[in-house]
Amino acid sequence: MVNLVNVLIVEDEVLIAQDLSEILYDVGYKSIHKARSYKQAIDHLQNNTIDFALIDINLNDKNDGIQLATFINHNYQIPFIYITSYSDVQTIAEVKITKPSGFLLKPYNKDLLIVSIELALFNYVNKKVALQTISLSNNAQNDDVGLVINNQILLKDNYQYIKIDIHEIWWFESDKNYIIVKTESKKYMIRCTLKKLIEQLPATLFVKCYKQYIINVQHVQSFSADSANIYGNQIPISRNTQEEVMQLLKR
Asked: Quick one: CATH architecture of 2-128?
């Protein structure tokens, strides 16, 4: 199952919140939550799996967007971008402390908004990968590195990021500088290496069976010493990995 990235828009002006929602929806972000106050935003965070937030600084509330950002940093560590009309020295100083992924002034530009969100999610993915002690290549700034969090892989599909349950993945196939992610309904592409990816995957489900393949053993219907059958697709098993693959498949 493909799960779309959940976006939270925190904006007290209804028309602006609706405009932001429509812009995101048009480019593929279908799971959008809206909050008009600090309290409503907290409720959404506590009752939904929010992946990214757009936050207005002035919420006409005793608690503003900066306080909300502080709460997010302490409890959820998700990326967020401020959208505000304020750019005075004091506001900027307070904003910097919360380490946002971006800062956009109203009236915002649609294209810049989308690019800012994409970069924020991209940088978030790479930061998490780095924290998992996976060395990024010299071309990491151009990599769409898949990241496994809570049994879901976060990857880029066209102009948005989506989440796919790892149990739905049949196999990963290396194709030069990219990896093909094969599911029942679709193939996706990520810019990564099998070596980086296998370190993020649960060893009870996934095994590198050949120099070009990582398979999900849950979807193997039959196997022999030199190949595994996944719904009619024969995936090769190399001699070097044969023993490890056989042990996992037999379990």
From this structure: 3-Layer(aba) Sandwich (3.40)
Strand order in the sheet with 2-4: 2-4, 160-165, 152-157, 147-149
SS3 state at 58: coil
Spell out the CATH class of 140-250: mainly beta
Q: CA distances (Å), 73 to each of 14, 69, 121, 211, in order?
A: 26, 6, 15, 40
Nearest of 175, 218, 166 to residue 194 by alpha carbon: 175
Question: CB neighbours (10 Å) of residue 56?
Answer: 25
Q: Tokens 């849950």 appear where?
A: 218
Residues of the chain above pLDDT 90, percent: 52
- Residue pair 32/9 in contact by the 8 Å Cβ criterion: yes
Q: What is the pTM of this model?
A: 0.61
Measured between alpha carbons, how far is 46 from 48 in angstroms, rounded to an integer?
6
Q: Where are the domains of the chain?
A: 2-128, 140-250
Say if CB 10 and CB 59 are below 8 A apart.
yes
Residue of 96, 98, 76 lying closest to 88 (CA atoms)? 96
At residue 27's C-alpha, the angle toward residues 25 and 31, to 5°, is 40
pLDDT (tens digit per residue) in 116-144: 988 888 788 766 655 543 333 444 444 55
Q: Encode pLDDT of 150-206 as tens digits.
A: 677 877 777 677 888 899 999 999 987 789 999 998 898 887 788 888 888 888 999
What sign has the CA pseudo-torsion 17, 18, 24, 25? positive
Cα dihedral 39, 26, 164, 172, rounded to 10, equals -150
